[in-house]
Amino acid sequence: MAAPSPDRVTFLVVGCQRCGTTWLDSALREHPQVFLPATKQSYYFDRNLDRGDDWWLERFTDAKPQHTAVGEVATGYTLPQAVDPMAALAPHAKLVMTMRHPIERAYSFFQSRRAEQGWSSFEEALAADPELISRGKYIDQIEHLLKHYPREQLLLLFYDDFAKDNAAYLRKVLDFIGVDTEFDSTQVGRRRNAAMFPRLRRTLHRVGLKPVLAALSRSKVGDAVRKANNQRRTDPSEAMSAETRRRLVDEFRPSNDRLAQFAGRDLSHWNQ
Asked: 8-192 adopts what CATH topology?
C-alpha cells in the first residue's frame, strides 16, 4: 500500500520532554476521531531523516475516513534540526507545544534517565548534557517554529494548567485539532510516567515491545513503582542543591521573561 499524502497528517505534538506528552498521547488515542501511529514517536524529523519521507508517512497508512485528526506525538520536533524538514513536508499541520517550569523539567528528565546515563548527580547531568538547559528555553524554539508556521497554527500549553485541570487541558487540545471536545477520556484524573522503568523502557522500545511497558504501567507493579519513585524523589538527599537552583534560575530568567511577554502569561514563579 502506498504511503499517504503529507496532507493526511493534520497535527503534530512537537514537545517538550517531561511535560505531560505521554498522558496526552494516551488520551488522544482513545478519541474515535483521532489517529496516532502504534508507537508514540518515530523521531523522524530529529533523528531519522535518512529513512525518507515515505518511511514516516507509512505510519499513517491505517488512518480511516472517520479520523479527522491524524498526527504524531514527538517531543523532539522543536529541536533546530527538526523544524526545517518538518515545515518543508508538513507546512499545513497544526502544532501543539507543551511547556513546564524549565528547572522542574530538567530535573525530571535527569531523574528519568540517571540510571540509563550513569549520572551520579544532577550537576553531572547538567555538565554532560547541554540540552537539559537549551530545551527549557522555550521561547527560542517558538521563535524558530514561527519562522515557518503562522501563529494560528501553534497551540502553546503549560504543564501548570495540566496539573490543575487536565480535563480542560484536553478539551483545549481537542478543539485546536478540530475534533469533538465532549469526549470523555479515561485518562482524566490520572497521571502517566513514560520513564517509570528507565532501563526496561529503553530495551523494550528497541525491540518493539512498548505495549509490554504500557501493560506494566497499568498494573499493580506500575502503581508500586510509581509510589517508590515518588518517595525517592521527595528524599532530601535527592534534591538539587540551593546553589544549583539559583544558578538555573539566573540562566532561565531571560528566556522565561521573553516567553511570559510573548504568551501574555505570568511566569514569575518560574524565576523563584
From this structure: Rossmann fold (3.40.50)
